[in-house]
Amino acid sequence: MALVAATLFLGVSAAGQNKFQASVRSLPPQQQDGGFSVFSSITKYLALGDAASLSSWFADNLDVTVLSSNRNCSRKQAQEILRNFFEANTPRSFQVTHKASESNKKYIIGLLNAGGELFQVTIYATASAGDTYKIQQLNIARQTAAY
Q1: Class of the domain covering 34-142
Q2: pTM of this prediction exceeds 0.90
């Protein structure tokens, strides 16, 4: 579904008659969601519990925190950590609750419903050459308080 930006102009002609003019244009896809389209695949893979597909978005090395275990690891190690987490906590859904960005950095926070529990997931991604975003940090923590 394309978002549309509308510009309205109401002016008065020399004869005193009101003129109404409208122009409608579609926003480019990257502006429709504030440039967060990079996260559409990532959030889908989280909801599906697809660690292998999710790992294609990982940087070569990244910080991964799952529950209380924190480590800097390779893409392959991070994939294995997430695969184990998803096996123990079968995902049902993922909902983004917050997103923010600055220059070449973006992050989202969301709630993962998995294994009968809610987990807060925070993902930081940065862009390198060619505006390709890669996940630098991934944090999964048990949700302890209601929003």
Answers
A1: alpha beta
A2: no
